[in-house]
Amino acid sequence: MTKQSVLVRDVVGFGFLYAQLAATFWLVPDWSPAHIGEPVYLAALANVVTAAAITAIRLSGRRGSDAERLVLAVFLAGMPLIYLSSWLLAPQPGWLAGELVGTALFAALAFIGWRRSIWVLAFGIAAHGLAWDLWHYDHATFIPNWYALGCLITDVSLGIYVALQAPFFASSVGARALGGSASDQAASRLILPSPSSSAR
Hints:
Elements: H1 3-27, H2 39-59, H3 66-89, H4 96-115, H5 118-136, H6 145-165, H7 182-187, H8 195-198
């Protein structure tokens, strides 16, 4: 893969990552501390933390690291918990079974993606938006529409970021630490200068 193609993947991927953050800030109706205990507002804050963590990991020179994979897996596993928590605060008949099944399904995808395939994480994150968020939008009374829409935008954008970065991840967790393939190890090098290289 050429430096130019890697740079394009970075520019487009981070463009989606930060564009969805802008959408989040615009869609959240009220950022006042009075909402800090509400699941949907905690999720909005978690989105900011996730983007910041990904950025920090990448700036440290660890492209395709196990740490970044873990952040993405936690993000995927945590998203359906927001819906389940919101249902517990304002139950709507006929939805609990679906919430439990969805929580288990996305947790399984997160675990498989973390341990085995970054593509499962890319698929799972995007699928949560295109399936789960759309299913709830304008149907579930326990989730505000602004959140379902914002989560959809975030999921699809982050799914695109992960898909663009997928070739740089090792085949499974720990593969690079165990001396993985040459292509796995080469993939970890950033186009952006790492702190050690910039000091030279």
